[in-house]
Structures are given as structure tokens and as C-alpha cells.
């Protein structure tokens, strides 16, 4: 497959993104994006994004909703890109207060109509104050219960809420496979999660030097539990790992390939090995 790597040989500053030289390379590497939001209005029309992702050797992705409002958009995108984009339907903790009566029945119905769909993005977040945990927890635990009932994998967002997460697990155990997306917890937290069925996805944002502690945690995780994600349009990687610049500091999902290359360097393993491992782990978690 002919791809292009954005190269500036370390000389051009971020404000000169337009001057990047596109150097053609031949690669057999293939990547899977375990978490993004291609339906996000900030990204605009997803078609050119998907074309760029395919050209960057991204052979599939999991597209996560954040509220009932975008379930249909995710569904339409997955139908248009059947087999390449897997849908995930859920309610994000930031939008737990927007859940309308009957949302759980409608989520169940949506999942029944989409056998390949997972549940997500859901979870708990104490980085924000509104909605608070009292509002977030019943929405999250209902999605945990539904994932177990329907035997679907689940994508979890957890930020500054690890104690609350394990309390919810005590009330509503998680399904046998679930993804801790953009995992930013400690190795001790990971060791508690692994026996429960957790996988952990690495986003390019963690390549920033100020996030070195998170990278160190990923180096200690079992390799058969590590996935890659773009989390586009968020979690922008450092400039050196941006192959597809977007305006307004948004993260293009096709940056995933360069994120993977950078992580392989950090892990001191061949990039082909990391690509293979993370693809297989994504398939194990989501059933690609």
C-alpha cells in the first residue's frame, strides 16, 4: 500500500505545518484505531478523514458515541463503512445529565439491531463537577449491566474517579472484555483491572514529555492488553507525531500510524511487532 509520511526533518516549527514534505513510503503495516469520534461535528465531513485513514494504513476503527443525540450518526457511519467501522453506543459521563427517560431501552434496541456494536463511551469523571458522580454512577452502572446482559464489550472513560469505578464494579461487575480508553491510572490500578478483563488503549497525547509517567505505566502492562487509539478529534499528539495537521488544534484520526511508530520506539520493539500486537488485541477486545 502506498502511504505518505509527513516529514520536516526536525526543522520546521508547528506554525509552518503547511510546509511539511510528504515523503512516499511503501509499507505493509496495518493499524486499528480502538477509539475515535468520527461523527464529531468539529471534524466535519468524515469521508475525507476516512480516505486519509485508509491511506495511512488504518484498516478499521471503533467509532464511539457520547450521547443518545449522536447514536444515529454513528450508526449511519458504521453502515456506510461496514466491516471497517464498528459502532459503539453509550452515554459519556459528561452527558449523563442529558439522559432522557427510556434511554436504556432505546440503547438496548439499538444494540439488538447492531450485533457488532459495543457499548461506549461511558464511565465516571471527577475532573468535571457537573454532572456530579451522583448523576453519573447510575447511568454508568446501567450500561455495565447491559453489557453483561448482552455480552458486549464496553469502552470506559475514567478520570480521577478510580475509587468510584471499583465501587461501581462491586455493584455491577463489568463484562468479560472492556477497554479502559486513554488509560491514565497507575500500574497498581491496572493490576486490579486486568483480572476483570480490562484492555488499555494508548493515545498519542501520552507521547508528550509531561505525560512520561503514563508512558512508564504502559511499558509495565502485559503486551497482550495494549491497544492504540486516536481519540480524534481530541488528545492531539506532539508535533513530531502529527502526519495530518488540522486547524484549531484538532487531532486527525490518520495520525494513528505515526503514534504507533513513536510508541514502538518508546517500547524499543519493531514497529511491525507493535502493529501486529495491537491489531490482535483490538480484535480480541471488539471482535473485528
Core attributes:
two-stranded antiparallel ribbon; 288 residues; 9 helices; alpha/beta; disordered N terminus
Provide an overview of this structure.
By secondary structure, the protein is an alpha/beta fold. Helices cover 35% and strands 20% of the residues. It has nine helices and ten strands. The strands form two sheets. It has an eight-stranded parallel sheet with strand order 3-4-5-6-7-8-9-10. Helix 4 packs across helix 5. The model is unreliable at 1-26 (pLDDT under 50).
TL;DR?
This protein has 288 residues and is of the alpha/beta class.
Task: Itemize the secondary structure elements and their pairings.
Elements: E1 2-7, E2 21-26, E3 31-36, H1 46-55, E4 58-64, H2 71-80, E5 85-89, H3 103-112, E6 118-125, H4 133-150, E7 154-159, H5 162-171, E8 178-180, H6 187-193, E9 198-203, H7 212-220, E10 226-229, H8 256-267, H9 271-286
Parallel strand pairs: 3-4, 4-5, 5-6, 6-7, 7-8, 8-9, 9-10
Antiparallel strand pairs: 1-2
Helix pairs in contact: 4-5, 8-9
Amino acid at each position: 500500500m502506498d502511504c505518505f509520511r509527513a516529514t520536516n526533518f526536525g526543522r520546521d516549527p508547528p506554525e509552518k505545518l503547511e510546509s511539511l514534505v510528504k515523503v512516499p513510503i511503501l509499507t505493509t503495516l496495518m493499524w486499528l484505531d480502538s477509539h475515535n469520534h468520527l461523527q464529531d461535528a468539529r471534524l466535519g465531513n468524515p469521508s475525507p478523514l476516512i480516505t486519509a485513514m485508509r491511506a495511512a494504513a488504518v484498516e478499521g476503527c471503533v467509532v464511539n458515541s457520547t450521547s443518545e443525540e449522536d447514536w444515529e450518526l454513528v450508526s449511519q457511519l458504521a453502515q456506510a463503512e461496514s466491516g471497517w467501522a464498528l459502532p459503539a453506543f453509550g452515554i459519556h459521563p459528561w452527558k449523563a445529565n442529558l439522559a432522557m427517560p427510556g434511554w436504556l431501552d432505546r440503547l438496548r434496541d439499538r444494540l439488538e439491531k447492531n450485533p457488532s456494536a459495543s457499548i461506549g463511551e461511558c464511565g465516571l469523571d471527577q475532573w468535571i463537577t457537573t454532572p456530579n458522580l451522583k448523576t453519573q454512577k447510575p447511568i454508568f452502572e446501567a450500561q455495565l449491566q447491559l453489557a453483561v446482559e448482552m455480552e458486549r464489550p464496553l469502552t470506559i472513560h475514567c478520570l480521577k474517579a478510580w475509587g468510584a469505578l471499583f465501587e461501581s464494579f462491586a455493584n455491577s461487575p463489568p463484562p468479560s472484555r472492556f477497554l479502559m480508553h486513554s488509560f491514565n491510572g497507575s500500574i497498581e490500578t491496572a493490576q486490579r483491572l486486568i483480572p476483570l478483563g480490562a484492555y488499555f488503549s494508548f493515545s498519542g497525547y501520552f507521547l508528550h514529555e509531561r505525560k512520561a509517567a503514563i508512558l512508564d505505566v504502559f511499558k509495565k502492562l502485559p503486551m497482550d492488553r495494549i491497544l492504540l487509539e486516536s481519540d480524534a478529534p481530541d488528545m492531539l499528539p506532539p508535533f513530531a507525531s502529527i502526519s495530518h495537521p488540522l486547524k484549531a488544534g484538532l487531532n486527525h484520526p490518520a495520525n494513528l500510524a505515526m503514534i504507533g511508530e513513536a510508541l514502538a520506539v518508546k517500547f524499543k520493539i519493531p514497529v511491525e511487532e507493535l502493529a501486529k500486537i495491537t491489531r490482535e488485541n483490538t480484535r480480541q477486545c471488539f471482535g473485528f
